[in-house]
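Quick review question:
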């Protein structure tokens, strides 16, 4: 028989872990289901300087998320590491089918976040982990004294490019326009960094290499002209880090009656309520403008508080 909870939280990023803390403190019998590793995207981000209070010596995304996780545990949330394969969100008892087990609850908080957008060019999939990466904190160490390219022009691309300069000999930001999207304060730091170069109005159209990335084709977005870039002969390889935005992780909710917008994000009201009674969403998976740890945590707190009120009303 499926194990029954008051609240199930799907996803242990900042939104899910904050929801766990609040649900636990509200004495709700709570389960957090995480498919991989606690912390979500922020657990693969090195610098975290804009979460209020996170000014501790050596603070990083992983260290902050470790404390979030411990705090949810402290208030008694159960946690399982499993992959959600289908859900039934209708009715008073909601069912979450995972690869290993099935769980049920009176309320569900969805905080599944978003995953990195791929370039979608030939060679990208084959060379992922062999020169192509979506996580500077995870892979920067492999490029000590090599050349790396960062694709994207937003906060993530520019911040991660700066982090990569601690390892790589040279970092070139490849951006499809001639102006960065990143916050002005982040841009200023990058422009002042002597190890960072820019390749404007450019996209990557092909990545190649025999087991390791050593060549790519880039295209001028204005003229359509293409150019080959080869690894330095002595290096024999280079790195490409891709930061061109994120896609919501909501595929499992398609066709369940849960409303999704045209891009797959979940619309909620300001109390994190979705279109289904007893189903809430928190964090980057929501339709919203500012996707940050602080906004995800706030969403999680509100969602848990509302979910607890809903469970008590049944
Ligand atoms: P983003 O702000 O959406 O930026 C994505 C970048 O990739 C943009 O420069 C975009 O170009 C480019 N891009 C998108 N699709 C592309 C494609 N197919 N080919 C080439 N380039 C493409 O994403 P993000 O930087 O990952 O940030 C996501 C959210 O997290 C934002 O709200 C951001 O503020 C937040 N964030 C904050 C921090 C921080 O505050 N410390 C750090 C990281 C992320 P265009 O500019 O031309 O659209």
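Suggested answer, residue by residue:
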């Amino acid at each position: 028989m499926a194990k029954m909870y008051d609240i199930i939280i799907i996803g242990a990023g900042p939104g899910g872990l904050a929801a766990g803390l609040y649900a636990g403190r509200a004495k709700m019998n709570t389960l957090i289901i995480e498919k991989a590793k606690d912390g979500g995207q922020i657990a693969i981000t090195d610098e975290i300087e804009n979460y209020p209070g996170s000014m501790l010596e050596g603070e990083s995304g992983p260290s902050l998320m470790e404390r979030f996780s411990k705090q949810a545990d402290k208030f008694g949330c159960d946690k399982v590491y499993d992959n959600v394969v289908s859900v039934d969100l209708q009715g008073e008892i909601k069912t979450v089918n995972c690869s290993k087990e099935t769980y049920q609850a009176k309320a569900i908080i969805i905080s599944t976040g978003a995953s990195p957008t791929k370039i979608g060019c030939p060679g990208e999939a084959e060379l992922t982990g062999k020169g192509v990466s979506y996580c500077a904190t995870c892979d920067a160490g492999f490029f000590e004294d090599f050349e790396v390219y960062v694709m994207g022009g937003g906060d993530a691309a520019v911040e991660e490019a700066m982090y990569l300069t601690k390892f790589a000999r040279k970092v070139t930001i490849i951006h499809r326009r001639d102006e960065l999207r990143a916050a002005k304060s982040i841009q200023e730091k990058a422009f002042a960094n002597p190890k960072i170069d820019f390749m404007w109005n450019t996209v990557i159209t092909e990545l190649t290499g025999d087991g390791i990335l050593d060549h790519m084709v880039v295209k001028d977005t204005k003229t359509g002209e293409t150019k080959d870039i080869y690894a330095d002969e002595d290096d024999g390889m280079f790195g490409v880090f891709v930061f061109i935005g994120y896609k919501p992780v909501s595929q499992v909710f398609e066709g369940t009656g849960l409303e999704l917008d045209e891009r797959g994000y979940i619309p909620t009201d300001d109390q994190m309520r979705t279109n289904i009674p007893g189903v809430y969403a928190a964090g980057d998976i929501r339709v919203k403008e500012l996707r940050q740890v602080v906004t995800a945590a706030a969403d999680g707190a509100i969602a848990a508080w509302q979910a607890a009120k809903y469970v008590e009303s049944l």
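Why it works: The radius of gyration is 21 Å. Residues 50, 152-157, 159, 176-177, 181, 203, 243-246, 291 surround NAP (CB under 6 Å).
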